[in-house]
Amino acid sequence: MNRPFLVAQISDLHLKAGNRLTYGVVDTLGALRRAVDHLNASDPRPDIVVISGDLVDFGRADEYAVLHPELARLHMPCYLVPGNHDARGPLLAAFADHGYLPASADGPLDWMVDEHPLRLIGLDSTIPGGHGGQLLDSQLQWLDDQLALRPKAPTLLILHHPPFISGIGHMDREPFINAAALERVIARHPQVERLLCGHLHRPMQRRFGGSLSCVCPGTSHQIVLDLQDAAPAHFNLEPAGYLLHRWDEQQGLISHNGVFGDYPGPYPFYDAHGLID
Hints:
Largest sheet: 6 strands, mixed
Radius of gyration: 19 Å
Helix content: 10-25%
Number of strands: 15
Shape: globular
Number of helices: 6
Strand order of the largest sheet: 4-5-6-7-9-8
CATH architecture: 4-Layer Sandwich
CATH class: Alpha Beta
Oligomer: single chain
Distance between the termini: 43 Å
CATH topology: Purple Acid Phosphatase, chain A, domain 2
CATH superfamily: Metallo-dependent phosphatases
Structural class: alpha/beta
């Protein structure tokens, strides 16, 4: 490929069935449809889409049945990992046509895709029945082995839970359990360009193991930016967003924060006389 490779990242779709509003407020289905339309209409269009978890709200088969045809409208391949609102069995049953996913839900839904300019490794950081995240020792060993196989291949890791404390009180009460162990693995493999995460419904970044952990905003609703230890669990309807990661072999990986929706503009900086006064 002699042009930049574009990876769009969306996260935390929280889709419901039966046209129900999430938390009685958020039209998550409408938000996802706007996101898909936006990505399809982009110029240049992203080459792939990755989705960093919380695909649906309660992990039910009827929710995944709504989600699947919506994602099938994307004009590019999409790759997904589960979040704490997902359930492995129903997710796999609904997305049996996603051949990169494991065949069985008996364990974590980890995967690897090696066919793009950026290598993709999906990690299932969920704890069934829990809110926080972790990677089992067996997952960390698998990750270490996978990274060792291609030490020169620029790699994206996709997982739901960011492996760090955000400062948003209610989201930090059930943190990533073994973040230090994951960081030691990442530090051994400098080809890891990014850890692409969700869960926090806000864009944020942190250095991690010599790489960068990037959190994607929510496709519909955002968690309130409240850095008090006693921050309550609440959300708002700030503009929905996504991340767009641009890979160029010479220039490296640049991560842009985008928003969905229509806004005034674009307006020119210059006219026939120069900079507009």
